[in-house]
Amino acid sequence: MPKMYALDRQRSVYIGGVAGKRPRIPVDLARLEGVACERMSAEAWAYIAGGAGRERTMASNVSAFDRWAIIPRMLRNVEERDISTSLLSHTLPAPFFLAPIGVLEMAHPEADLAVARAASALGIPFIFSNQASVPMEMCAAAMGETPRFFQLYWSRSEELVAHFLQRAKACGCAGIVVTLDTTLLGWRTRDLDLAFLPFLRGMGIAQYTSDPIFRKIMEEPDPAPTARPRPTLELIRTLIAANRRFPGSFWKNLRTGAGLRAVRTFIRIYSRPNITWQDLPFLRQHTDLPIILKGILHPDDARKALDYGVDGIYISNHGGRQVDGAISAIEALPAIASVVQDKVPILIDSGFRGGADVFKALALGATAVGIGRPYCYALAIAGQAGVEELLINWMADFELTMALAGCKNIEEVRQTPLLERKA
After folding, report:
1. DSSP letter at 105?
2. Structurally, how many domains does the chain consist of?
3. pLDDT confidence bin for 243, thresholds 50/70/90
4. Is the pLDDT of residue 114 over 60?
5. How high is the mean pLDDT of the chain?
């Protein structure tokens, strides 16, 4: 990236303003969220913006950053700045990545593909969601040499898990991000109030329906068939939509019931809440890609992960969508960083809303930061162009924060002590 990137971005915005041009997406995160809410359906907004229970974890993720303060230093030469960093042997233009978000078709018709193209345009890594709306191969083809990772939800079918790992390797993924905190869906009140779960409509299951192992499982008898709801007009619409989303001819899918069978099969095999530490060697048996454990919040779990030889720790509480009242991600970081001691990279997401948040995370021991809901909001407003603009804004915001705090590169940020405020 250009060394004067932040100033270039500021100039382009202000010069555009002289001609009456405003940014494509709101720069202010609160306004970004508000505009996105207006553009999305009530169901889409509830699914993407909502959290578990009373959403205390989601709120804490954002407010917990106030516990630490940056103390800017003066009279330091920051004319030459470099915000690049490295992650698992890959050089990144900035210390962040796009975290996995499922069912992006609810935000924009081009869904994951638009995000992949935006990530590639800026060189920012993208973690393909296990619950994507576009198969990983299509997204990988759009990303060129830009690093990408695959998020794995551990299915009840080990054969399917193994094949997902093979597909990730084949499409150039740089690692497997194993999500540990969603073996069961959290109590998501907004979705429950609307009685809406996108997967039941065939949304967000493209990684499955594009997989030959999943297709094979679809043909197996359901050992515990669920009761069918009473036919209604809405149910008929839902079945039609599910068959449109299933690959191949709509009329053939409608005739064979492929869309409905895919949804039923997904529900049956999606969740495996009985996985334990002893299951991790299975991954090593089926892939040589780096393995990153996502959802780590306790230092003892980080210590155990190191004992099992994982290649990265990913601190996350799933954006507050799983456990109401859980520790915020940034609060969990210092203790985990103390355990990890730079042995493996530390990734983190949940609650990040701008450059100052990224600065604090790096200063507390993180390697790279995941952008979550904000890029989804940008996608809803302006598609690929919106995501690109959001990434440009984050790069500029972080670079200016870094420089104004007296640091000229990431290493100096990591050596910067923060002021911890007393409760």
Report:
1. G
2. 2
3. confident
4. yes
5. 94
Here the tokens at position 150 are 């695959």
Q: How far apart are CA 210 and CA 168, in angstroms?
A: 13
Average pLDDT over residues 189-202: 95
DSSP 188-257: -HHHHHHT--GGGGT-S-HHHHT-HHHHHHHTSPPSSPPPPPPP-HHHHHHHHHHHHHSSS-HHHHHHHT
Q: Is the pLDDT of residue 257 over 70?
A: yes
Query: Do residue 60 and residue 187 come from a single domain?
Result: yes
Is it the case that residue 1 has pLDDT exceeding 50? no
pTM for this prediction: 0.95
Q: Domain range spanning residue 371?
A: 5-191+272-420
**Structure-token match 């500021």, residue found:** 10
Check whether residue 120 and residue 15 sit in a common domain.
Answer: yes
CATH number of 21's domain:
3.20.20.70
Interacting residues of 102 by C-beta distance below 8 A, sequence separation 6+:
129, 130, 131, 132, 204
Can you give the pLDDT at residue 225? 64
Instruction: Please identify every residue annotated as catalytic.
Output: 318
Q: Cα–Cα distance between 38 and 333 in angstroms, integer?
A: 34
> Token match 């507390």: residue?
364
User: pLDDT of 71-93, one tens digit each?
Assistant: 999 999 999 999 999 999 999 99
Residue after which a domain boundary falls, among 269, 289, 310: 269
Specify whether the CB–CB gap between 291 and 178 falls below 8 A: yes
DSSP-assigned beta bridge partners for residue 69: 419
Beta bridge partners of 90: 87
pLDDT at 348 over 80: yes
The token duo for 225 is: 């068939």
Residue 52, sorted as left (phi over 0), alpha (psi -120 to 50) or beta, turns out to be beta
How remote is the C-alpha of 323 from its chain's centroid?
Answer: 17
